[in-house]
Structure formats: structure tokens, C-alpha cells
Amino acid sequence: MTLRLVLVGAVLVLAMLPALNRLPADSALHVSDFIVSVTGKWITYAILALAIDLAWGYAGILSLGHGAFFALGGYAIGMHLMRLIGPRGVYGHPVLPDFMVFLGYQELPWYWLGFDHFPFAILMAVVVPGLLAGVVGYLAFRSRITGVYLSIITQALTYALMLAFFRNDMGFGGNNGFTDFKELLGMPLNTPTARSALFYASLLLLLGALWLCSWVARSKLGRVLVAIRDAESRVRFLGYDVTQHKLFVFVLSAMIAGLAGALYVPQVGIINPGEFSPGNSIEAVIWVAVGGRGTLVGALLGAFSVNALKTWLTTVAPDLWLFALGGLFVAVTLFLPRGLIGLFSKAQK
Amino acid sequence: MKNLSLALGLLLWLALPARAQDAFTAALPGLAGGFGDIAASVEQLGALGDPRGLPVLRALQAGQLQKTADGRLLLPGNTDAATGQPADGAGAEAVRLNNRVRQALRGALGRLQLVSPDAAERGAAAEAIFRSRSAEDVPILQAAIAREPDAGVKARMVLALAAAQLVAPNEEAKRDAIARLGAAGTVEARALLIEARAANPSLVTAIDVSIASIERSLSIRRAAETLFQGLSLGSVLLLAALGLAVTFGVMGVINMAHGEFVMLGAYATFVVQEACRGIPWLAPWSLPLSVPAAFLVAAAAGAVLERGLIRHLYGRPLETLLMTFGVGMILQQGVRTIFGAQNREVTSPAWMQGTLMLPGGIAVTQNRLWIIVFGIAVLLLVIAAIRFTRFGLEMRAVVQNRRIAATMGIRTGRVDALTFAFGSGIAGMAGVALSQIDNVSPNLGTGYIIDSFMVVVFGGVGSLAGTLVGALTLGVVNKVLEPYAGAVLAKVFVLVAIMLFIQRRPRGLFALKGRAAES
Questions:
Q1: How far is B417 from chain A (nearest CA, A)?
Q2: Domain segments of chain A: what residues?
Q3: Is the pLDDT of residue A337 over 90?
Q4: How many CB atoms lie within 10 A of CB A33?
Q5: Residue A148 contacts B, CB cutoff 8 Å
Q6: Which range, A263-272, B38-47, B434-443, has the best average confidence (pLDDT)?
Q7: What is the mean pLDDT of residues A112-126?
Q8: Do A336 and A288 touch, CB atoms closer than 8 A?
Q9: How many CB atoms within 10 Å of residue B129?
């Protein structure tokens, strides 16, 4: 009960941030632009953490490639944002984005068609990660690849995607990715209006995702997932189709991650293949581990606290950050198997 | 009769230099005359092929040849060019050059180098003639070939002769030259033949036959070189994956810090090299020395990691994975703090540098060849350690059945620590090999860790034979795909292929059978 109150309080505080940002700069309650944009970014991270927690904490699928789904969602919206630049690019080409003009493209590749429509881009931000997760998950779960093997396969997946997106002839901007976005849905980006709109959209998505995930977790499906996590063979012998259950939750998780990525990119204003790097995915996993997996709320707590620590440490002592992150991995797995949430629930008892 | 001919030959052999000497001294005075005389004399000296012309022409080219008022020529250090005796250099002035002389010098020096005492220089001269070729070179080359003791240099001269004969008017010699160029099978020979094809309509069929034979041998050579590159990449993967095969395959521990142990090994190599730098007789042997050093450093790190951390997480592989990833980060950042983020250079010792030419003109870089040898040696060592030592026996026993091994008096905890240290030590040795072909930087290991995991998964967990086959297959497939798809896409293809492959054989190429397979 206390937990729920804390959660509601936290959401209210978050919801007030953009409003406080509009206060005059000399007001005591004024919140800087930096805080708003950074918190908006963290919210999308928290959604990614939720997605990972659903797969790992409930179904025992430790994906080290969820960053790939996040980045794919980001690329989908990035393509839309690139199309919206229109003739305002450096080269002033009416249709082609700058990097395509630079690379000598004559016309838009077929897979860029449709991305000038916002609904289509959002749809792709969900469908593409979902499809990829569906194919990979089907192949992996069908041949009963579990545990660390699955982790390594998913890590290889995001690694392969990173290498692929680094290529210029993929048609996704290569090394530089997409940037210099101008506007979204008629709102010029980088204005307070756009910032708060994106912020509230992220917050809404976070609440929606939290509601969806906890609904799945509490349903009968969720209980079967927990059973699969704890004793996969036994569940299979009881007559449940383990492959389908795992596939469902993996695809759902990938779709949520894709949406999070779609909200992340307009807020940070850039997407490049670095988002696919295996390190990003595993960092997202540690958010969940720090917060406490299998609790959903723990994932949120972890995402916010680890990223707050990162933002603080990388400005104060950049060299220390990797030590701290590495130490977090060690400390959490050895001493805090249930994460920060575990501390609170122990205190409640 | 025999004695007579021998004596006659000896007489001729003695007379030959004497006659040359006459011509040599006769050609010299022109160098003290006007520009026209100098150029004529230079050409004469070049055509003579007398080795003593070489220092004279070199001095002339460098502007260090001096002439005295009475027409004698002095080399640097005041020796008489004709007699080789010390001479009085008072009042001498430098012989001056103009462009015509310089041009003559270039040709003459190129020809004279054919008689240089240095084999490498003779080879270079043959190469130069091969490129510049003219009909006048034919007799000089024929004379040089008759004298040449070094087989390698001789082969190059024969090629140069063929090139020169192609531009000479003799039809029969041309046919002969075309056949020889065809047998040489090099890109240069092909270019030469294609050039000659237009100029010699009567020889087109012979030239086409030769070109086709060159194309054939070139494609065989390309295939062999791709295979070699693939094998050398494969043995790098093998080295990186062998340690994983022990820790992951045998112990079931996912060690994401494995790449960092490789990196530690590479830095150990760097440290040993720096330590040996001050001791001249030791410096060339720093690399062999760093093999045990790297093994010990990485093994110690592995033992500490196992006893201190991993031990508490047995039976929880996902947590082990995350924890070791964190350890890897700390190691990386630690090394970055100590050694700096920039690349450190580990130089190859002289005996590992250079390129080896295998028969058939297949070029093989020595250090990659050594890596293949090293990889195989380490593999054999690992197999021997597991098969024939007490430690190997205990290790196999613990893998098969931990409890029964313990009741038989095996200290399983100690075996765990030793096994992990062993696997980590192998990673360290992989670092020694990698320091030869890659930059030694804190994130050296990250580039190889995913590939090594793929090797172990592909080859079959817990099987050293699978690791060998997996590593070499992945290496060769990567290199074979590269020309068609580019390095990056080749890697992507391989990753996708492995994922599809696991569909058919989820337990890898060399799956364990029997009871061990069930766990």
C-alpha cells in the first residue's frame, strides 16, 4: 500500500516538472530545461526497463539485446523526422535527406516509403521490433534455447544490427545516423512546448506500459510465465505450450521497447548505430537488477536511480563512472539479489 | 683431356676479369672530360658489367667523384678510381653532371647493380629491368644469369630477361619468353603479355595460352591466400575461444570478463617488452617470455575472480553473466586508468616480421603464420593437460559428477579455482597473440568476446574438438565471404548463419552424448 502511495507521489512530481519549468527563472520552484529534458529521457529508459523486467523478471528470458528493439523504434521515428525536414536540409533536396544526397542516391529506397506519415512511423516503431523479436524468439524458443544461450544469441543479434547499421549503403545514415531534426506533428522541436508535449507523452506511455505489464503479470498468463521461469520442463509436461507463452511475452516486451525508443529519439534529437551497442543493452539490464526484477516498480526505480547516478557521476568524476557501474553489477548480484525493492519489502515485514 | 679442358677453363676464367679490367680502365678517363664524354663513358661502364664500376658511378651520382688537374679520378676518401690505391687529392674538383649524364647514370647503375656483391641489390636490379625492359638488356642479363649463385635472384633475372626478350626483335626468343612469363604467373607478367599482345599479332595464340595459364594460377593463389587468412583469423578465434571452452564449456560458467583477460594478457606482453627493452640480449626474446607471464597474470586474475566472486553464484548462470560483465568493466577502466586510453604498441621481433613466399608465389605474413602455429600448440597443450595430468583427471571427474568426485577425496573447490585459472590463463596467452595483429588498447577484448562465444556455441559446449572446428570454420567462412559482401556484412551473415544452424543442432557441431548431455 505504501508502495502505491510512493508511486502515485512520484508520478505527480514528475507530472509537475514541465509546469515548473514554465515558472520565471528566479522563482524558487523553477526547474531548469536540463532537468526536464533529462527526466524525459529517463522516462523512456524506464519504459525500456519495464519491457526487460516483463521478459526477464517474469518469464526468465534474459535478453541482452533489448537495446536493439529500442534503437529500431528510434530509427523508425527518426526516419519520419528525417522526412519532415523536407527541402530544409543542407543540400536542399526536395525529397531525399542530406545523407542520401551525399551518398548519391537518386530516389528514396522502397523501405522509406510511407514514413512521411506519422501514424505509419509509430506503427513501424512497434511492428518492426515485434517482428524481429517474433522471428528470433520463434527460432530460439522452438529449439529450446534458454538461459545464457539465449542471452548470448540476443547479444549477438544487437551486435550484428550495430555492424549492419554502421554501413552507409544500408540507407540509414551509416555512422552518423539521423540528426538535425526540425519538427514533429507541426511542433518545432527544441521549444518548451515540444519538450513538455514529449515529456507528457512519455509519462503517459510509462503509465500505460506499467498498467499493461502488471495486468499481464497478474493474469493467468503471467502466472504460467512465472512457472516457466522457475521450472520450464515441468510446465511443459503439464501440457502448456511453453514456446507460445514465451514468444508472446518476448514480442510484447520488444514492442514496448520499440515505443520507448520512438519517444526517446525526438527528445535527444539524434539516433545512430551506437544505440545498438551490446553495452547499452546490458546497462539496461542492470537497471532492472538494481531496482529488483519481477516487480515492475523495481525496474522503474532502478532505471531512475542508476541513470541519476550516471548523470551525476559523469559530470563530477567521469573516470569513476565505469568503476561504479561495474561495481553495481557485482554488488547487486552478490548482495542484493532482489534489488533495491527487496530492501524496502524486507523493511515492511 | 679432362685436365686440359679444366686448365683451359681456368685460364679463361683468369683472363676474363683481366680483359674487363682493361676495358674498365680504358673507359674511365672519359669521366674527366666534357659532358658528352662523361655520358659515353657512363654508358660504357654500365655495359661492361664490371663490379668496380659501381662505386665510381655511385660517387658520380652523389657528386662526390673528383678529378685532378692531370686527369686522374678520385673516389671519396681520396682513392684512385682506376687502381684502388690511396692518392693525393690536392687541387681536385668535383665532376659535374647535367641531365643527359644523369639519365645515362640511371640506366648504367641499374645494369651494374646486376653484378653487385649484395644479393638483394641484384634482385632489385633485375626487378628494375623487368619494369623498364629494353632489348639492350638481353646480353647483360644473359651474362648475369650465368654467373648468379642465388636461386631466388636468378628466377627474377630470368623473368626480367623474358621481359627484355619480348621487346627484342628475335621471334624465337619471344616465343620462349612468352612461355616463361606464362609459367611465372604474376600480375606483372600478365600486364606485360597483354601489352605485347597488341604489338605482336603473329604471337597472339601463344600469348593467350600464357595469359590463361596466369589467370589460372592467380585464382589458385588467391584461393590459397584467402584460406590462409581465414585459418589465421580462425586460430585467433581458437585462442580466444579455447579459454572459454574450459570455463564455459567445462565449468558451465559464463565469463563475460573473458575478453578482459585476453586484454590483460596483451598488456602483460607490453609490460614484459618494456622491461626487456633495457637488456639488449633479452629484447628479441621478450615475446616468448611474455607467454608464461601473460598466462600467470590472467590465471591469477581468474583465480581471484573465481574464489572471490563467482564461487558464490554457482547454479545461477544469469547472475554470473551480469556479475562478470561488471568485473570486465572494472578491469577495462582500471587498465585505462593505469596505462591510459591510447593504444600501446607491441613490436614484433625480427624473426616474426616479413613475408614468406611459399612455392607458387603465395605470400604469407610471418606473424600470422606464427599465430597459427601458436594456436595449434596451445590447443595441444590444453588437450594434453586435460588428458594426461592429475589436474586434468580431477577436472574431468568433477565435471562428470561433482558429489562422487568429492567423496573420492577430490577437493572440488580447489579444482574449480584451478580450472577457472587455467581457462583464464589461456585467455592471457591469446592476448599475446592478439598483441601482434591488433592494437593493444583497454577494449581489445570486447571485439573478440562475441565471436568467441559464437565459436563455442557453434562447436558444441564442452568439446575441444568442436572449438577447433568451429573456430577454423568461422574464420575461413568470414574471409571467404569478405570479398563478396564486405567485412561487416560477412560478419552479419555468419551470425545469422549460426543462429539458423543452432536450429538444426541446438547443442552444436560436436554435441556431448550420454549422461553429460542431459545437464
A1: 18
A2: 55-276, 278-349
A3: no
A4: 11
A5: yes
A6: A263-272
A7: 87
A8: no
A9: 26
How far is the C-alpha of B178 from the C-alpha of B204, rounded, in Å?
10
Place of cell 520442463: A233
Which range of A27-36, A66-75, B429-438 scores highest in mean pLDDT? It is: A66-75
Q: What secondary structure letter does DSSP report for B29? A: G
User: Does A153 contact B332 at a Cβ distance shorter than 8 Å?
Assistant: no
Contacting residues of A for B453, CB less than 8 Å apart: 152, 155-156
Evaluate if residue A253 carries a pLDDT over 90. Answer: yes
Q: How confident is the model at residue B11 (pLDDT cuts 50, 70, 90)?
A: very low
CATH architecture of B220-517: Orthogonal Bundle (1.10)
What is the nearest CA distance from B143 to chain A, expressed in angstroms?
56
C-alpha cell at B207: 600469348
**B219 or B143, which is more confident:** B219
ipTM over 0.90: no
The span from the CA of A124 to the CA of A120, in Å, is: 6
Q: A156: alpha, beta or left, given left = phi > 0 and alpha = psi -120 to 50? A: alpha
Distance (Å, whole) CA A88 – CA B366: 54
A287, A290, A292, A298 alpha-carbon torsion, rounded to 10°? -50
Question: Tens of pLDDT along B13-58?
Answer: 444 444 555 777 777 777 777 888 888 888 887 777 777 777 788 7
Place of cell 640506366: B107
Contact B301, B264 (CB under 8 A): yes
In angstroms, the CA A304 to CA A287 distance is 8
Q: Decide if B313 and A334 are in contact by the 8 Å CB cutoff.
A: yes
How far apart CA A98 and CA B250 sit, in angstroms, is: 52
CA atoms lying within 13 Å on the CB side of residue B412? 16
| pLDDT tens digit sequence for B467-497 | 888 888 888 888 887 777 666 777 777 777 7
> Is the Cβ pair B489, A155 closer than 8 Å?
no
Interchain contact B448–A (C-beta under 8 A): no
Beta-bridge partner residues of A184: A187
Q: Which of the residue ranges A95-104, B157-166, B324-333 has the most confident prediction, judged by mean pLDDT?
A: B324-333
What whole-number distance in Å separates Cα of residue B479 and Cα of residue B490? 8
> Nearest residue on chain A to B507, judged by CA atoms?
A145
For residue B358, is pLDDT > 90? Answer: no
Task: Give dist(CA B509, CA B469) in Å, integer.
Answer: 9
Q: Which residues of B83-224 form beta strands (DSSP E)? A: 93-94
A255 to A243, A336, B65, B232, B517: CA distances (angstroms)? 18, 29, 83, 41, 36
- pLDDT reading at A297 higher than 70: yes
Nearest to A294 by CA among B328, B325, B318, B252: B318
Domains of chain B, by residue range, sit at: 29-115, 117-199, 220-517
The pLDDT of residue B265: 92
Q: Is A132 on the interface with B (CB under 8 A)?
A: no
Cα separation, A227 vs A238, whole angstroms: 11
